[in-house]
Design brief:
The protein is an alpha+beta fold and 177 residues long. Helix content is 25%, strand content 40%.
Length: 177
Amino acid sequence: MKRFYEIILKSTLFVLTLLWFSFTNKDKFESEFEKLQKLELLALQNGNIGKEYSYDLTKKEGCNNTKIKYLGVIKTNNGKQYKVLSSFFVFSAASTCHGTSNIKIYNLNNKYLGKYNVGMSEDLPTEIKNNKSICWSKTKDCDLRNNFSINFENGLAKRFFLPCSQKGGDEIIFINE
């Protein structure tokens, strides 16, 4: 009978430990995400086109920094204007770090409208040209991105193809949450 209680006690402690770690990691992610949102808003309010901000949100050795860059304003033919950020968010997940890269779209009052998830930080655009096109530069692995751009004169694209090399590229979809 004593052995039975030992097994129950150990099992209960194990389950409680797992629950504690899962909630603390979720809380840490939410805290990092809330910081990201505040820092993105700060970049929008500062309005320094082309300035990249770098932050260590994870406080973990070996992890990349979160990077936020305000690209400027795109204008459509019908008079709508959108602020554009590139955002590489690095966050904690258990004992490792993960990242996500997005082109984030805001209205002129800094209200978040949606995003294009582009995958890797190298997939983020580098600038806006003539207040109408988001532009990319060539990267080591994606030579077809050199001078590639998406024109937003007719409005926000619901989706577009981001070329990489002769082997292909990625379909990018606008997500409004």
